[in-house]
Design brief:
The chain is mostly beta strands. The chain has helices spanning 71-74, 78-81, and strands at residues 31-42, 45-58, 95-97.
Length: 98
């Protein structure tokens, strides 16, 4: 097992991530869930407000591990998906409401 922390110095930032190779899919495509939350602190009292509405962003292409460099398969970011020829092919603006 590799020790990822052995070269990390005190006070240094470190990002560790692992790509999920078997993600949950919608119609064979990747997705992310967007929910809006407002957190306020007034006189030391913390309150959170969650919006009842939200949405799911989808990718334009079917998920596969064969093409890891294809951002239209692996990223759901709207700025990326808008460049795909399949943008809005399955859902309007690659978004679903819940």
């Amino acid at each position: 097992m590799t020790n990822f922390f052995s070269d990390c110095k005190a006070g240094q930032s470190l990002v560790i991530q692992r790509y999920i190779t078997d993600p949950m899919l919608i119609s064979g495509r990747k997705f992310d869930i967007r929910v809006f939350v407002l957190v306020t602190v007034v006189n030391g009292k913390v309150r959170g407000y969650m919006c009842q509405e939200g949405y799911i962003r989808t990718s334009s292409r079917q998920f596969t591990l064969e093409k890891l460099d294809n951002r239209f398969i692996h990223l759901t970011n709207d700025a990326v998906q808008k460049q795909s020829q399949d943008y809005s092919k399955f859902e309007s603006r690659n978004k679903l409401t819940f």
